Amino acid sequence: MSAENNGMSAENNGTPTPPEMVSSPPPARRRGMGGRLLRGVAWLIGGALLLLVVAVGGFWWYSTTPDFQHRLNEKVVEVLENATGGKVELQGLSFSLWHLAIEADGLAIHGLEGPGQAPYLSAEKIEVRVKILSFFAHTTGTGLASHIGLDLLRVEHPEFHLIVYKDGSTNQPVPKHPSTRKTPLQDTLLDLKANDMELVDGVALLNDRAIPFDVAARNVEAQVHYLSASDRYGFSVQLEDLQTKMKTQEVARSRLRFDGELGRNIAVLKNLEFDSGKSSELHATATLKDFSKPEWQAKIKGALDLKQVSDLTGFEGLTGGVVDLALDGHSCEVTPAVAQRRPHFWQRRHAPTPANPAKAKLAPSPECEAGYLVVGSAKVYKAGYTNQYLVLHDVDGGAQLHITPSELLLTALT
Q1: What is the pLDDT of residue 339?
Q2: Which residues on neighbouring strands pair with residue 259, listed in sequence order?
Q3: pLDDT tens digit string along 4-29?
Q4: Which residues lie below 8 Å from residue 241, measured CB to CB, with a gap of 6+?
Q5: How far is 390 from 156, CA to CA, in rounded Å?
Q6: What number of CA atoms fall less than 13 Å from residue 264's CA on the CB side?
Q7: What CA–CA distance (Å, rounded) separates 290 from 299?
Q8: Neighbour tally for 170: CB within 10 Å
Q9: What is the DSSP string of 370-400?
């Protein structure tokens, strides 16, 4: 036993142990340190997520309390009063964090109208839903997505009431802090990228006390959708009950429908349908490009009941008949000096002398010499007109039209 111990002792005290036989640090210890590090990171991430969940949950709970609703209501009223300058009333306001939606009930904005009169603007209910991606991008303020995006804007039973007084003033309120932004309205609307906007059962009232004139539009419906492919808004508007009254004329009942697209520098009217009375029906299309230097073209085709025209415009004397119209117009690329070179045809008798005639000596365009050109045809059937000096009835006729700001030509009279 002692020999073995001595042998082993001699072996240990003899030649050095080869390097490959030297034991390395236990791998279990390194795995333990890595595990503790990972557990620490996991606890950190878990704690952060738990804190976020608690914060969101706390805010969600607080957003359902009456105190939050009351504070939000007061803030919205304050913002609207500063923006419009009117007296704002809001019956109720609710906010849903889960749906990212705000619903306002009983909104009324009072302008300069007198006591007891209908408010300048009101709505029974307004619903706004924010797009989720745009909401989080806006809160972090990153890139173009920092603009607020809307998923839905729905307004139920809106009423607009405008009064024009004898001195030319209106009941429209004036903002307390006018905006200094120079961004065009169409850019602001397009930046919202609203998926769906609806206007349901609206009413518009216009009362001009200087000139007896009333307009009421009921059963108004409008839908607007953002078209991402073209960066435009597509819109559709229906006025199923449009009532107008001019001076002492009878109330004219009409229907108006139109749809089109609005871009940052273009507006397209794809289709317009106007029906009024028994036989008035118009269809129109139009395009407007470059809002800074407008270029437009339009087409109108249809028939008008002349008695209904008298009711719509206040032009007295038309007693009956129908006129068929087919018109095609467009703008012309001419300078303002060219457009002013000749007076309007209704101004020729007393045309003013230019202050500096030399500035108006520019050659007019051979096709369109004064800003726009409208050509087409008009045919009249069984027309009647009456005043204290003249009585006409059952008049038939037609003509080709050529209209510019300085000329009204009728050719091919029949």
Answers
A1: 41
A2: 236, 271
A3: 444 444 445 555 555 555 555 555 55
A4: 216, 217, 218, 219, 253, 255
A5: 50
A6: 10
A7: 19
A8: 15
A9: SSEEEEEEEEEEEEEEE-SS-EEEEEEEEEE
Residues forming beta bridges with residue 215, ordered by sequence position: 206, 244
For residue 316 the two structure tokens come to: 């007295």
**What values do phi and psi take at 356, rounded to 5?**
-135, 90
Give residues with Cβ within 8 angstroms of 67, minimum separation 6. Answer: none
Residue reference for tokens 């620490």: 40
Name 251's Cβ contacts closer than 8 Å, sequence gap at least 6. Answer: 243, 244, 245, 311
Contact by Cβ (8 Å): 94, 85: no
Residues of the chain with pLDDT under 70: 1-34, 132-150, 178-194, 208-213, 247, 333-370
Cα–Cα distance between 174 and 358 in angstroms, integer? 43
pLDDT tens sequence across 160-218 = 888 888 787 888 888 877 666 666 666 666 666 667 777 788 888 877 444 556 777 77
List, in sequence order, every residue forming a beta bridge with 268; answer none if it has no partner.
261, 287
Intra-chain end-to-end CA distance of the chain, in Å: 144
> How many CA atoms lie within 13 Å of 193's alpha carbon, on the beta-carbon side?
17
Distances (CA, A) of 77 to 21, 157, 362: 83, 20, 56
Asked whether 324 and 303 are in contact (CB, 8 A), the reply is: yes
Give Cβ neighbours of residue 134 (< 8 Å, ≥ 6 apart). 145, 147, 148, 149, 193
